Automatic annotation (TrEMBL):
Its EC number is 2.7.3.9. It comes from Shewanella algae. GO terms for cellular component: cytoplasm. Belongs to the PEP-utilizing enzyme family. Residues 207-234 form a coiled coil. Its main location: cytoplasm. This is phosphoenolpyruvate--protein phosphotransferase. It holds the Pfam family PEP-utilizers_C. Keywords: Coiled coil, Cytoplasm, Kinase, Magnesium, Metal-binding, Phosphotransferase system, Pyruvate, Sugar transport, Transferase, Transport.
Amino acid sequence: MLNTLRDITQAVAAARDLEAALELLVGQIKAAMSTQCCSIYILDKNELVLSATDGLEPSAVGRVRMPLTEGLVGLVAEREEAINLADARAHPRFKLFPEVAEEEYRAFLAAPIIYQKQLLGVIVVQQPSARQFSEGEEAFLMTLAAQLAMAIRGLKQKASVKEDQLQILFQGTPASNGIAIAHALVLGGQISLEQPDQTAADIPNELERLKTAIERCRNTLSTLAQRFDREQDEEVVSIFSALQLLLEEASLGGEYRDEVLAGWCAESAVSRVSLRYITQFMAMEDPYLKERASDIRDLGQKVLRQLIEPERLELNADKPVILVTREADTTLLAEFPRQKLAGIVTELGGVNSHAAILARALGVPAITGVDQVLAADIDKKLLVLNATRGQLMVSPSPAVVGEYRSLLSAERALQRQYARELNLPAETVDGKRIHLYMNAGLLSGLASEIAEGADGIGLYRTEIPFMLQQRFPSESEQVKVYRQVLEAASGRPVVMRTLDVGGDKPLPYFPIKEENPFLGWRGIRLSLDHPELFLVQIRAMLQASGSGEQLHILLPMVSNLDEIDQSLEYIEQAYSELKSDVNPELKRPKVGIMLEVPALLFQLDEVAKRVDFVSVGSNDLTQYLLAVDRNNPRVSALFDSYHPGILRSLKQARETCRQYGLGASVCGELAGEPGGALLLVAMGYNRLSMNQGSLARINYLLRRVRSSELEQLLAEALTLRSGSEVRQLVHDYLGQRELAAILN
Ligand code: PEP
Ligand code: MG
């Protein structure tokens, strides 16, 4: 049974289009269930259309349409449950459609096809004899319907691309607001180093492909080296130069070629050479040589990408593009020149995945969880991305493009209007001063970003520079980076978070494979298991800060008091060593923890005895309080920081912190959203840290509201039932004050 299910689902997923898939499906189900008739009805504009049949009158396909209120098929759709009848004719909802010629059938079993609460259609099997289908048959059809739902939805979307070039085609989840109009650059996602062994049909041709791929790789590497050279990042430049050397004939370049000459196609050759050397290097004792395995892996993937997706990774595209990919890894986004990146569309990933956060940090409109977008043929087509509404349009008509161009310019005008006040303090009409800080992670552009508006850096995610490296950065390399960050903040406070890898932030050179990464080896857990790495990082932060008072150290993902105590011991150890050996003027930094793990909400009295402040990570706190993986598009609709339960927790945290004299700020995404900022201010948070792109908007908003009104707003919000009701309340509040445009 399992095999049959799997075969049918796979065949459908691989079908060329919806029609072919349905055709195939009815035949296969009929055979698998040894029945006389199988038909599929697909929902189209509130009607169920007979879309494929094996057993009814073929000419009725596409012609028979029924509203949900009619017939037994309509009843299945209406009730969203399976119906199993020994004699369909005896049922009061039975309706005869003469065109389909179903007079001979009596037994009737039907199951709805539902994808994420949305009805897509109904599968029906019928038999002439009046007998009830068995429980097993019913379960089989329901399982099949559930498994097919995703493939059918994908094919339906694909079909609508072809049918109507003017319509909205894809729906995703808004991850970074804004509108973009540009051509698509489709990247097929992760390239596996493990390519199948395939012999070459034409060796000279394979050699030519390999040569071109190597050449393109060389160009990309040299462009990247130049770019980082301009940003004076010598270490990164040296990595790219080393990779370029590895591409030479005398090195891996020659090895790849020899493997093609031995008869393998280019992809297999690169894969074979890379895997062979990786195994050899990994077996070496010397840690330096061991680390070289990751260079070989990286280079292999770069060459393979050029072979598999030629012309894809030209980071020098002459015009901005909308990147369409399975999963945007943070490295890719960070490497992509900002001015060339108009928008991001991903199949996977949730609103609070780190790629989404990075998109917001870069100010690039983005949507995630766009099902089957890679299956549709949209590469190089003109796209309109309305990320605020989660919509992606492919090849829209000139009128639609024109409409969006004017929306875009209106949006830019609004941004300029907000930016004009950025230098004025964020103070409510009744005089409550809120301190706005910036979240950062990338070095490039930091100096100009921090120049205006922010009261400091409220969250510096140190893992981002770690992710852009080929190995753990050394102490002196880290000192250099942290010094730049502190300098960019010119005297203003900087909250530097210790390494928060794990979860959805892997380091390319330190892979962690876990069943439940968000419940696994993340943040401080990993640092405390590797004190040698943790100490290097703390020492680097302290040295960068020296006798200044800017540095605040923040510990991520703390879940118990022992973790705080141990971390404090390491911080103290690094501090006293450096003070006695290097800098007698060294200042002891303030230390805080991220409030992300719910249990700590109930131990704030103990936390207050140990650290100076907490920074509420509303992204993770929401994820853990609601038990919703922030990265999983299937459940992303459930990830809601406006859930009244979350709001009550945040309010309680603020009150408890005040009771124990513990400083509290918020650095999760909620702080940078208009509704979130208003509610947090009402709770008493007066330090909010957000992406650079949100600063001007939130500042503008806070300067136009009264804190007394916000308290009322919060009181009402806390009595509501759901996050959507809270959003509506905020929307109405802003609407009454003619501020609703700020939500766009
Ligand atoms: C958070 O969890 O809210 C947070 C700011 O940390 P990150 O998003 O980097 O996990
Ligand atoms: Mg977090």
